[in-house]
Amino acid sequence: MAGGGHIIALMSWSDWYKVEQLPWPADWAALFGRAAPLVVEIGFGTGRFLIDLARRRPEVNVLGLEISIPAVRIAGRKVQRGGLPNVVLMQASAPAALQALCRPGSVAEVIINFPDPWPKKDQLGRRLIDDGFLCLLATRMAPDAPLDIATDVVSYAEQIAACLARSPHFASRLDAPYALDDPGRLPTKYELAGLREGRPPRYFQWRRNGTPATDPFPIPQEYAMPHVVLRLPADPAEIGRRFRPTVIEREAARIRFIDAYQSLRNGKLLIETYINEEPILQRLALEIRARPAGEIVIALAEVGFPRPTRGVHLAVGALVDWLREEFPSLVVVQSTLQEAHDDGAG
Ligand SMILES: C[S@@+](CC[C@H](N)C(=O)[O-])C[C@H]1O[C@@H](n2cnc3c(N)ncnc32)[C@H](O)[C@@H]1O
Predict the structure, then answer these.
(1) Could you give the CA distance from residue 32 to residue 45 in angstroms, rounded to a whole number?
(2) pLDDT of 13 above 50
(3) Which residues contact 183 (CB under 8 A, 6 or more apart)?
């Protein structure tokens, strides 16, 4: 494969894999072009450590998960220059990628180098590593899979040590919760800065033990494409005029209707919608269009890579409910929604 590194070989320069683009769960063997143990580095930053890892261990598939788009771009260029066919980079939040893309027990190793410290009291809840995240890792990691975490933030090290000690699913590979040095490793960019500035790292070297984990993190299910046909006394333009931004909580989904845009060409209305179904966050458009028979259709617009999750059905259901409040004579003629609004299909 020319260029090396799947981010470059399969995607354009400004593109990379995202959770919404891949099947849930992902077919890693197809994506890497071979079946091999899956080693995941979370928050690889500029990719210094990940690239060294992929070079030293050509026998493993290295999956890099990084939330920052500029970081993915920088690391992607390095992967291309390095010609590393055993690397796949994703622009993704780690919990979303692990839950949606990785089958239970499928991850052979996890590395987290210097997770964002969030040092202030009111930021502590934003830290990646907590009891819940370890529980997710426990479901996705294979028995005996190594878990390596490094941090130079003392309070975060204490938090990680406490969470690991509490977890029934992990055991230290050392005689202590962490080591103060790890001579074999290539220091990361952040690590080098910390060492220069007098912040010595703590290196956690743990492993998934053999204790089975119950799995409260199902791979998100996909539903039928939402498609609702309505009869109501309004056209898309009138619906757009009545639209107001709204936030709705339904089941475990937080739905935000942001704005409405009408096509100058064909009159279609697009409702910009954010759907947060932790850990999956989708920004998509719901489409409202008129049918020649005078009916109105609501569907998922083909903008980006929308996935018809439960949250999407709930969002379309919420739009139907809002339209019914605005136009009480509304009739649902046809619907593929799963229990997302009160009225059945007529
Ligand atoms: C302090 S930096 C460390 C970067 C690199 N590992 C190093 O040691 O130089 C933390 C990195 O984690 C990334 N990150 C933060 N939250 C993340 C998440 N939920 N999923 C994936 N990456 C994340 C950040 O974008 C950032 O690049």
Answers:
(1) 21
(2) no
(3) none
Catalytic residue among 116, 130, 182, 343: 116
pLDDT in the model for residue 122: 86
% residues pLDDT > 90 (the chain): 88
Q: Indicate whether 11 pLDDT > 60.
A: no
Structure-block tokens of residue 191:
């690590």
Q: How many CB atoms lie within 10 A of CB 299?
A: 17
Report the distance separating Cα 153 and Cα 149, nearest Å.
12
Structural Rg of the chain based on CA atoms: 23
The two structure tokens encoding residue 218? 């199902």
Q: Could you tell me how many residues make up the chain? A: 346
pLDDT tens-place string over residues 76-115: 999 999 999 999 999 999 999 999 999 999 999 999 999 9
Residue 260 has pLDDT above 60, yes or no: yes
- Which amino acid, one-letter code, is at 112? I
Look at ligand 1, atom 1, and give the residue with the nearest C-alpha: 116
Q: Say if residues 319 and 271 touch (Cβ distance below 8 Å).
A: yes
Helix 154-166 with 131-140: angle, nearest 10 deg = 60
Ligand 1 atom having least distance to the Cα of 44? 6
Write phi, then psi, for 69 (nearest 5 degrees): -65, -45
Amino acid 271: pLDDT: 98
Residue 316 tokens, joined: 């379309």
SS percent in the chain: helix, strand, coil, step 5: 30, 25, 45
Dihedral angle of Cα 257, 132, 105, 93, to the nearest 10 degrees: 40
Q: How far is the CA of 151 from the centre of ligand 1 (A)?
A: 11
Residue nearest atom 12 in ligand 1 by C-alpha distance: 43
DSSP for residue 153 = -
Name which residue sits closest to atom 4 of ligand 1, judged by CA.
45
CA–CA distance, 150 with 136 (Å, rounded to integer) = 19
- Run of H or E residues at 53: helix 48-56
> Model's pTM, two decimal places?
0.91
Closest CA to 110 of 160, 183, 162, 69: 160
CA–centroid distance, 295 to ligand 1, in Å, is 49
pLDDT at 342: 47
